[in-house]
């Protein structure tokens, strides 16, 4: 079965609908018009550009180009993690901890899935590597930023409790125990919820896309299961690393709570 | 024992507290009394040296230091729902009657305690750790006169019996007169010994 290509003018029809929504929002003074239009425009431009990049990348398949794209994706995700935190660590710490956690978890899991589970030839074949890494990074980014945001915010709010626990001779790990558990929970919740609802409430995007592109549903389902499982693994380990590195940084070597290391963004 | 301690606006604070003795500390609010206690508990970066017997503050991990030098803050914090969860299991049997609680208090929920009750329980929570030094930040601020004196008597008794060295921040001259073996006052950046007459 051949995929039906979409002509550009047909996308224009969908764009007209967005314009209609924007106009309605403007007339009803809902205050979403501006951000809606900017976001729609960004989608079109960013996706058109990545389409060109992927076309070029698939044509060359050189390892260093793929590695470069992966690096750019990682750095942008790292910046996004910093921007999504209400309070973040001062200096380069926020960026380094977020990016480091995402790098270790999503790259390890992606490479593992590519080499052991899927096994394309070569293992870094961009048709598999780039979409997989993109999905991993996107979800890990959400998990890491949610958990770091929760960690820093709770520590800020509960500083009196933490210090009182320290005064009673608890180690910094004990004093942070409840907050760390909360932060992990909020980082993991989106992935756990997505797994619970998959197939019943929602048909995940990747599977839908594959079926539209002509894959037999049985194959598409297997890929979707693989992706959801490894996304959860990546998000979980990513949040775990971010929370333990971030928590460590909030205390100094004398186990004092150092809120001066946090800044409001 | 404190040597040339400096924290915040205070500098060159030197003090020696023998076991079983109470040193009271007073001064205008904002003069750094609490920060001085926090520095002794090593909760705040500071200059100078603090030692306990032969052990210097920096010789042991911070949490071990704070097990021996326990601070009770002016407003105590409670993080579990039930009072008893904040205490070791055997603390229930040893609950001192001077605190004025029935034995069931360990099963109460923290939210029904008044601020005065929390303060009394916070003192007991610190004492069950069997500290060698106690740092008390206005321990009777939320108590009425009768229970203040009852708590003072109980605390002094425990302090003498266990030979605890105590640094006690207090406002009330009457209280200082009742509990202090010596009294220091904060003057600007220095600590000055107050006369025995007040």
Automatic annotation (TrEMBL), chain A:
<keyword id="KW-0812">Transmembrane</keyword>
<keyword id="KW-1133">Transmembrane helix</keyword>
<keyword id="KW-0472">Membrane</keyword>
<feature type="transmembrane region" description="Helical">
    <location>
        <begin position="6"/>
        <end position="28"/>
    </location>
</feature>
<feature type="transmembrane region" description="Helical">
    <location>
        <begin position="225"/>
        <end position="246"/>
    </location>
</feature>
<feature type="transmembrane region" description="Helical">
    <location>
        <begin position="128"/>
        <end position="148"/>
    </location>
</feature>
<protein>
    <submittedName>
        <fullName>Iron export ABC transporter permease subunit FetB</fullName>
    </submittedName>
</protein>
<dbReference type="InterPro" id="IPR005226">
    <property type="entry name" value="UPF0014_fam"/>
</dbReference>
<feature type="transmembrane region" description="Helical">
    <location>
        <begin position="194"/>
        <end position="213"/>
    </location>
</feature>
<feature type="transmembrane region" description="Helical">
    <location>
        <begin position="63"/>
        <end position="82"/>
    </location>
</feature>
<dbReference type="Pfam" id="PF03649">
    <property type="entry name" value="UPF0014"/>
</dbReference>
<feature type="transmembrane region" description="Helical">
    <location>
        <begin position="94"/>
        <end position="116"/>
    </location>
</feature>
<feature type="transmembrane region" description="Helical">
    <location>
        <begin position="35"/>
        <end position="57"/>
    </location>
</feature>
<dbReference type="GO" id="GO:0005886">
    <property type="term" value="C:plasma membrane"/>
</dbReference>
<comment type="similarity">
    <text>Belongs to the UPF0014 family.</text>
</comment>
């Amino acid at each position: 079965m051949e995929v039906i290509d979409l002509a550009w003018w047909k996308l224009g029809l969908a764009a007209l609908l967005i314009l209609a929504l924007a106009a309605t929002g403007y007339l009803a003074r809902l205050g979403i018009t501006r951000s809606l239009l900017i976001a729609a425009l960004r989608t079109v431009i960013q996706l058109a550009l990545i389409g060109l990049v992927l076309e070029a990348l698939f044509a060359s398949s050189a390892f260093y180009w793929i590695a470069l794209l992966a690096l750019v994706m990682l750095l942008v995700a790292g910046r996004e993690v910093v921007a999504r935190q209400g309070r973040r660590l001062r200096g380069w710490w926020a960026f380094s901890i977020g990016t480091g956690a995402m790098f270790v978890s999503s790259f390890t899991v992606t490479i593992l899935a590519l080499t052991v589970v899927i096994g394309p030839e070569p293992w870094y074949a961009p048709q598999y590597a780039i979409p997989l890494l993109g999905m991993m990074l996107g979800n890990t980014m959400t998990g890491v930023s949610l958990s770091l945001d929760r960690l820093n915010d709770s520590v800020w709010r509960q500083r009196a409790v933490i210090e009182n626990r320290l005064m009673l001779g608890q180690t910094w790990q004990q004093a942070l125990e409840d907050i760390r558990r909360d932060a992990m929970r909020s980082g993991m919740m989106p992935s756990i919820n997505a797994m619970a609802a998959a197939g019943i409430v929602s048909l995940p995007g990747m599977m839908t896309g594959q079926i539209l592109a002509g894959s037999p549903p049985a194959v598409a389902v297997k890929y979707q299961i693989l992706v959801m499982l490894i996304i959860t693994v990546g998000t979980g380990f990513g949040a775990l690393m971010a929370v333990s590195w971030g928590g460590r940084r909030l205390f100094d070597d004398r186990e004092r709570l150092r809120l001066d290391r946090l800044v409001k963004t | 024992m404190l040597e040339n301690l400096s924290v915040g606006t205070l500098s060159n604070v030197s003090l020696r507290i023998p076991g079983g003795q109470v040193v009271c500390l007073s001064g205008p609010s904002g003069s750094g009394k609490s920060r001085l206690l926090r520095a002794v508990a090593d909760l705040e970066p500071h200059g100078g040296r603090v030692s306990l017997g032969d052990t210097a503050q920096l010789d042991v991990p911070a949490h071990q230091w704070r097990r021996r030098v326990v601070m009770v803050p002016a407003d105590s914090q409670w993080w579990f729902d039930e009072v008893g969860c904040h205490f070791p299991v055997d603390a229930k049997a040893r609950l001192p009657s001077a605190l004025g609680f029935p034995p069931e208090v360990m099963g109460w929920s923290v939210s029904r305690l008044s601020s005065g009750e929390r303060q009394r329980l916070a003192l007991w929570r610190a004492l069950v750790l069997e500290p060698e030094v106690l740092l008390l930040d206005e321990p009777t601020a939320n108590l009425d006169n009768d229970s203040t004196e009852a708590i003072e008597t109980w605390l002094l008794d425990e302090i003498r019996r266990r030979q605890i060295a105590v640094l006690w921040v207090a406002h009330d001259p009457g209280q200082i007169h009742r509990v202090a073996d010596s009294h220091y006052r904060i003057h600007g950046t220095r600590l000055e010994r107050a006369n025995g007459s007040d």
